Amino acid sequence: MRNTAILLLGLMLSCVSFHQLQAQSELSRVSITERSDGKGYVLRYHLEHSADSFKIAQPTPDLIQFMIYSEELNPRDFQQPVLVESLSNIEFHNNDYGFGTDLILKDNSHFRATAYPDRTSAHLLVALERIPESEAVSFSENQDFIYWFNYQSDPDNFELPFTDLDNTFLQLRNGQSFDVIVLDPGHGGRDPGAVNRQLRIYEKDIALAVARKVGEYINQYMPEVEVVYTRDDDRFIELEERGRIAAKAGGDLFISIHANSVANNTRAYGAEVYFLGLARTQSALEAMKRENSVIEFEEGGRSIELTEEELLIYELANAGNLAISEQVASLIEDQFRTRAQRRSRGVKQAGFMVLWNLPMPAVLIELGFLSNPNEARYMASEYGQTILASAIFRAIRDFKLENDSRAKQTASSNE
Are residues 100 and 223 in the same domain? Predict the structure, then answer.
């Protein structure tokens, strides 16, 4: 009897192990077909075994997010679908919890998304039904983003994703080491910056909170680098004074942190990274004018705009710093996009007064849009600020590692 019980227990354990092995669901592909009623599309996630659960969200009218929760999910030889006319892009995010999808819609394409399991298989389906723009805006107002990755408490635990950088810009520093970084939280004091009045969220507060977190990471994980703040509390600092602080400190890199806003538009979202130059897009021009309007808070200040001639002369005289600025901006943009899972609106140029005449590489970061309620709440949250600060920190450290490596090579070649 005892031997029979042991045998039965062994068989049960074997069945459990076999079941667990079989439960590892494989996602082979995602296909898109037009709905039979002609009202939109259906995405089919081809799973071999049922997922634990799933979630769908539409945090903005032009973004649909779908998350499949399954810790054992394995996208084996995953095949991406061919884009249909209404989709601008599809981004996939494989993480510790399963598999996520960002469906980015084209302008004037509006859908309501519904997710449900297939009746005859383990597949999951996402139905997209065309709806009017007003309905899409209303539908997305109270929905939050799905965050694909949780922040890891140890930002030191990561792998450098940059193995094929063009290091020309690093050589322009003539072997200088990277010792001082200047963090510039935008606005402050009587200048609140952009404001979401309904949620009572101010750009000056977000900029300071994120800058402090970046500084804390640098102090902890790069103690050899000195951190200098243009302001470390809620005070107003004139634009010219910010430059003097940076120059007096002998800064090797200047990072100005801001949040964006668009009047009468709750849809715009995503991060932008700028370096000094001619504004080549309307959005860059609008951001520049808004940030430069800070001078109106200065004594006797008036809104000014750098001329095309001034910017061209500056670009010619500061080619080395601008080349480095562009590369640092690209590092930050890459971190926002790949690590922080933020929508990237790209690296751009504009004539920001705070970057004018700085004797060092300099970038200006727009973390997101306060005019978008969901993004405003994200930037005001501890979670969002941690994610954003971590991304900026990682980009700074990547730059330093590459820079110091080139500095050592330059020193060795000169011996």
Answer: no
